[in-house]
Amino acid sequence: MEIIRLSKSSISTTEKDAVHNVLDQEFLGMGKETQNFEVALSEFFGRSVLCVNTGTAALQLSLQACGIGRDDEVLVQSLTYVASFQAISATGAVPVACEVNPDTITIDVEDAARRITKKTKAIMPVYYGGACGNLNEVYNFAKRNSLRVIEDAAHAFGSTYKNKRIGSFGDITCFSFDGIKNITSGEGGCIVTSDKTVIETIKDLRLLGVEKDTEKRYSGQRSWEFDVTQQGWRYHMSNIMAAIGIEQLKRFPEIAKKRQSLAKLYDEFLQGIPEIKLFARDYDKIVPHIYPIKIQKNRNRDILREYLSKNGIETGVHYKPNHLLTYYNNYSIPPLNTTEKVFGELLTLPLHFDLSRSDVEKVCFHIKKGLSRTDVR
Ligand SMILES: *Cc1c(COP(=O)(O)O)cnc(C)c1O
After folding, report:
1. Which spans in 46-195 are helix H?
2. Which of 30, 55, 231, 265 has a CA that sits 20 to 30 A from residue 310's CA?
3. Which residues lie closer than 8 Å to 103 by C-beta, 6 or more apart?
4. What distance in angstroms lies between residue 355's CA and the mean position of ligand 1's atoms?
5. For residue 142, what are the CA distances in angstroms to 39, 122, 128, 132, 331?
């Protein structure tokens, strides 16, 4: 039986040729290709971009560059990938788990307001599935409370908000280029901002804090005489990764269109089923990283998943709320009831560039069949 995968990379000959080219040059680390990828991304977003080795690193370095660390607090929705939480705690700061709006799975600003303390320095909104919810509300809230906004836009490469591309505006926006995101560089991530101090700081932070090392490496050199004044990390992006990223960015219009049309197909096939709640999303405005639905009316999501798996269909649950993880389960007051309820309902269906119309039909056929089974009721 052929398995319909939940997600996967889509690599064409252009990426393979680009990697081959870097290998032939025998300069594999951070250099010209990395700089070229940053230039291409800067054109895409219309402002400064720095590439790093993961999206998690992008978030961590952005927080550190804002001076956020030990004894500080950062507001973040509990229902996100653990990367958001780990990036915050890596700086020494405390991630403060907040509720989500169940219709968008983006941070519930009213709930976040109840969790503000004197230590709160930033808010990290997560653009679940590719959509950012009411982002104006987040920015107004941040302004009123003098908070930095570090946007976790790992899911939202290419999406727009009020007709502006995410990453083209706002405080600091972080993207991920890991293997299954909207575009990939193998692993990788980037920081987009207009804040020159943040850019200059992260340039050094990603190279062990070695001052002015970025320019040296772009010209194929290394620093021998230098100073270090702060804790840095080895988080730079290699030429190999950048070469993949450059080709994926060129393919992005085609990639975006495919992901959007698959999501629209799911919407079409799954509408009007009483046990399924679809997310209201405009797929002409956003580029979906995942296609989640909610299984309601007391149907058993986990048994449905097993049924789908037996029929060769991989599904996911994005995500286990972080306040339920041992490392982060500092007792949340007030409790996160909405988050826990919605977590029980979420089901992510297969979505990737190489998925076909008939794959989507098969997934939807088995969902309908599965929902009518007595063990799922
Ligand atoms: C993928 C992801 C990240 C981290 O990106 P990596 O490149 O995998 O480190 C952060 N937040 C969310 C919500 C993600 O899905």
Report:
1. 55-65, 82-90, 109-114, 135-144
2. 265
3. 279, 280
4. 22
5. 30, 8, 19, 15, 24
Residues 275-333 have pLDDT tens digits of 999 999 999 999 999 999 999 999 999 999 999 999 999 999 999 999 999 999 877 88
Exposure class string for 256-294: b at 16+ Cβ within 10 A, else e: bebbbebbbbbbebbeeeebbbebebebeebbbbbbbbb
Which residue has tokens 């989500």?
Answer: 100
Q: Which atom of ligand 1 is nearest to the CA of 181?
A: 1
The set of protein residues with a Cβ atom below 6 angstroms from ligand 1 is 54-56, 80-81, 83-84, 126, 152, 154-155, 176, 178, 189
Strands 48-52 and 73-77: unpaired
Q: Is 97 helix (H, G, I), strand (E, B) or coil?
A: strand
Q: Distance from the CA of 128 to the center of ligand 1, in angstroms?
A: 11
Note whether 127 and 166 are within 8 A (CB): yes
d(CA 256, CA 353): 9
The number of beta carbons lying within 10 Å of the beta carbon of residue 13 is 9
Beta 73-77 vs 94-98: how paired, if at all? parallel
> In angstroms, rounded to a whole number, what is the distance separating the alpha carbons of residues 106 and 97?
12
Can you name the residues that pair with 293 across neighbouring β-strands? 278, 347
241-269 pLDDT per residue, tens: 999 999 999 999 999 999 999 999 999 99
The whole-angstrom separation of Cα 189 and Cα 353 is 20
Q: Does residue 133 sit in helix, strand or coil?
A: coil
Positive or negative: CA dihedral 106, 61, 201, 19: negative
| Whole-angstrom distance, CA of residue 357 vs CA of residue 336 | 38
pTM for the complete prediction?
A: 0.98
What is the rounded distance in angstroms from the CA atom of residue 373 to the CA atom of residue 275? Answer: 13
Q: Which residues of the chain have pLDDT under 50?
A: none
Q: For residues 180 and 187, what is the distance between their CA atoms, to the nearest angstrom?
A: 9
